[in-house]
Amino acid sequence: MMDVTLGDELLLLGYDDVTGKAEVASADLECGLAGALLMELTLAGRVEVSGKNLTVLDSAPVGDAEADAALNRLAGEDKPHPPDWWIDQLRSGLRERMLERLTERGMLRLERHKKMLVVTVSRYVSGDSAAESDARARLEDVVVRGAEPDARTAALGALVDSCGLARRVFPDMDPGELEARLKQLGDAAPVREAIRSIQAAMIAATLVATTTAATVAT
């Protein structure tokens, strides 16, 4: 079993440690987590972006329940699809399942509160912070101090950027400098083309999800 995945790290970074609230909109985080699954499978050599579509190279499990379920879905599809199509397919229910497993592992702690004495609101506050601290330290090392990134840290940086979390993870950094450094981070990655494709797909899928939600609301 994989210890901590890119999705785990993104979700830990995506919730405020004290308030237990998500730092970004639901659609941003959901599409980010689905993109993290595709990044994970790409780094593991199971899939690649070929032309405009995702192609399965190897259907052997990677040792993570969510990633392996996604891989099985990709392998079982009759025809290839682009990354944004898969992000839209994979994002449903993903955040809830991952929050549950991080809570079971003690990385997050679930607190429930009554709102207006009627509605029960769930908050996910920090638990065992080792995984989140490690993710932050790796990102700070390459983004703030300019260290050479490994593929996983570059992928995590792209996920954080695409979800709109960058300013929250690096609140004290100049916005222009932060944007430039995150771009350099993606350019330096060994799998930079895959990261760019999945990053663009996340943005496209988030836009569609947000527009759809707004249309339904009205």
Question: Explain this structure to me?
Answer:
By secondary structure, the protein is mainly α. It has a domain of 141 residues: yeast vps74-n-term truncation variant fold (Orthogonal Bundle), CATH 1.10.3630.10. It has 10 helices and 4 strands, in the order ααββαααββααααα. The protein has a two-stranded antiparallel sheet. A two-stranded antiparallel ribbon has the order 3-4. A hairpin with a 3-residue loop joins strand 3 and strand 4. The radius of gyration is 17 Å and the shape is globular. It starts with 5 loop residues before the first helix and ends with a helix.
Relevant terms:
yeast vps74-n-term truncation variant fold, 218 residues, two-stranded antiparallel sheet, mainly alpha, 58% helix, 4 strands, 11% strand, single chain
Strand-helix topology:
Blueprint: H1 6-13, H2 26-43, E1 47-50, E2 53-56, H3 65-76, H4 83-90, H5 94-104, E3 108-115, E4 119-126, H6 130-143, H7 151-162, H8 166-169, H9 175-188, H10 192-217
CATH superfamily of the domain at 6-128 and 191-208: yeast vps74-n-term truncation variant domain like
Shape: globular
**Helical amount:** 55-70%
Class of the domain at 6-128 and 191-208 in CATH?
Mainly Alpha
Q: How far apart are the termini?
A: 44 Å
Main-sheet strand order equals 1-2
Biggest beta sheet attributes: 2 strands, antiparallel
What is the N-to-C order of secondary-structure elements (H for helix, E for strand)? HHEEHHHEEHHHHH
